[in-house]
Structure formats: C-alpha cells, structure tokens
Amino acid sequence: MKILLAIDGSEYSNTAVEELSRMPFPSNTEVRIISVFENPLLTAPGAVPIGGTLGNYYEEAVSNAKKMAEDIVQNASQVLQKKNADVSVTTDVVNGLPKITILEEAEAMGAELIVVGSHGHGAFKRFLLGSVSQSISVHADCSVLIVRKPASEIEK
C-alpha cells in the first residue's frame, strides 16, 4: 500500500501523524511524508528574521521555512517508524501551493491513500480561506483520510 501523509506542523496535522501511527499496515507499505510550503513572505510573516538587509530577507525566510518543514517531516517519520518498524517511510519538503502540490505528489507516487489533518475551520472561514483537506477530498483520484482532532482536545 502506498500512503501520502501531508503535514504542516499544525496541531491538526500532528493528530493525523498520531492516528496514522496507530493503524495496522499490510507488509510492504510505503508512507511518503511531505510538507508543502508556500512563499513564506506571503503566508508566514513570522518566518522573516528581524535585522539583516532587505535583500536577504526573502532568502532567509525561504531557508527558515524549509528548515522548519524538514524538522516537521523528520519528527513525523520518527513517530511512524517507532510504532511501525516494518513500514518504509520517506520524507520530502516541497515548495508550492498545498491544494495542488499534494494532489500532484500523490499522483506521481501512485498513492492509494492521502492522509491529512483537518484544520477545523468553521463554515465562514472555509468560505473565505478555502480548505486544503476539503479540496483534496474532492479532487483526489484515491481515498482520502481527513483526521479530525477530538472535540475534547480542541481549545475553545
């Protein structure tokens, strides 16, 4: 079985990692863990360091975003391999738009299942922001598992 696990380091994607780690897998299961990051200057202003010159902000922001994404996929890989020693796990960090890139990566690997966390946006936020998990569930050519955080764990 080929599984694509797409994570972003959020508490919801961490829940997806935990859920996947508890699942039994057939022999020869391959799990590819990816983290897709967009232009950090547009999506994560906190990734831009204070100080330095204006010319190197972009390069530093991209480098910081990529390093954070690499740490995220490595941590997820360790969780999965600790609980499922027989599973083959690979990791990758990909630059692009998550809604599109996750689908492209799943198709390229021949994924039979895509696993993502739900960000739990309300209907109005989903309308304004769009939902990566919702888009993937509608457009994927394979099964999609959207892992929700238990209501008891959601901060109110």
TrEMBL record:
InterPro entries: Rossmann-like_a/b/a_fold, Universal_stress_UspA, USP_A, UspA
Pfam families the record matches: Usp
Domain UspA: 2-148
Family designation: Belongs to the universal stress protein A family.
Protein name: Universal stress protein
Classification of source organism: Bacteria, Pseudomonadati, Bacteroidota, Flavobacteriia, Flavobacteriales
